[in-house]
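Hi there,

I know you've been waiting on this one. I reran it after we fixed the sequence typo, so this is the corrected version. Both the input and the resulting structure follow.
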Amino acid sequence: MENIIDSIIDIDKTARNRVSEARKQADAIISEAEKSKETMKSESRTLLEKEIEDKKRSIRESSDSKISAAEKDAEEKCRSLEIKMEQGKSLWKSGIIGRITGA
């Protein structure tokens, strides 16, 4: 009878050791999974930040290019209007002088 009890105790110890070892392995797997998860989060965050910066740079460059084109266009229109104003100014002067002098 004592042998049976000793045998049951040994089986119980073995089972408890196996359960304990299984829990340690499970904890290690969970810990490793958490580390992997954090690494993936960090890598994803880094990639997204880079992507955002690239998009910002692209938008900024595009905007700068459009602004430069608009400024150039505005300058050309101003020059054209100044030329037309100068031409009209001469005609107005001549017309006014002609009306005053009767010529």
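Quick highlight: The mean pLDDT is 92.

Best,
R. S.
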